[in-house]
Amino acid sequence: MSLFDNKEQKEALPPLSDRVRPDRIEDFIGQEKVVGENGPLAKMIRSGHLSSFLIYGPPGSGKTTIALIATKNLKRRFITATNTRIKDVKQLLEVMKKEKKFSRVQPVLIVDEIQHFNRKEQDAFLDVVEKGDVILVALTTENPSFYINSALLSRLSVFVFSKLTDKDIERLLKRAVRVDRFLNKFTFADGVLERIARISGGDARRALNILDTITRNADKLSVNEEDLNVLLHNMPLYGKEQHYDIISAFIKSMRGSDADAALYYFYRMIKAGEDPLYIGRRMIRFAAEDIGLKNPNALVVANSAFEGFQKVGPPEGYLVLAEAAIYLAKSPKSNAVYLAEKSVLKEIETSGDLEVPKKLRNPVTKLMKEQGYGEGYKYPHNYPGHIVEGEKYLPDKIRNKKFYKED
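The structure assignment produced for this chain is given below.
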């Protein structure tokens, strides 16, 4: 009986991302600036003198893999902050400190998604990192400047990983097919691996999961475009195309004052792993572009939600952004500021650098005053309603232009 005739054997296989995870830095794909031959993290790993460090990067960019490669010959423990209590972490650190006294092997604690421990909880790592009792390898998908205790961050080397390119993902998939004893029995039609790479959105884990799923469920030892289409029809993905499609639907739903649709697309993005701060930035822009002076408070709400999420973090912070999305959707709408921006930029491009009227220039020197700078300027606060009736402030050539038109 072959490996592929036995359903139980296929189901018993570990996930593909674990089966093909490289254990040598030479086999690691991507992040050339950091892990390439002359990369700073690669130099640290090859030197054999590891110190505590943090890797910040998007999901599926190789953070866990390189952490495991870096600590391969050390006595390491791996925990995930999403399901570990800080009380248990403190007990583990005490155990690791005691173990170091009886062993020459350096203890290492790898903490995935360390941002899920709040800043106060992160103090637990300070003492062991400072004294070198335990090497801390921290991994995070969130900007450490906002989520990591500054005292702890100052004691860590920080390495930034980027989203993998489509070419990186394709190379990674080809390597998986080559080295995995299950996958290397398959043949793949031209374009299949390239398409999987393209729709994975720079996430290696997602790409490998797609490849794993399609081969586990295959009834033949070849995979073509149609097989991939059948899988994708039933599999929720969030690649580049969906990234733009869903954020577009989110914006258009708020613009159309449909709070329910805005919430739906908001949580679709959150579930798919979209950066919440990206959504927050788009809402700030929306408040200015689509609401404007019809409700100036909308900009305050959007900005406060952005800052609130930075302070609270996930998952509680999602509610802060959701509340803002509902508020923006239900606000009265005006794109007058947006249209004014387009109009004034077009005028500047057409008329060029027109001279500022001399009456508006400050006569900061005697020569400037003699040249007429500030002459004829009327101070608005000296007039009824703080407005000088009939006064013009634009350059003479366009003195009667109207850019902002109230609706």
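Interim note for the steering committee: The chain has a mean pLDDT of 88. Strands lie at 53-56, 75-80, 107-112, 135-140, 157-160, 187-188, 222-223.
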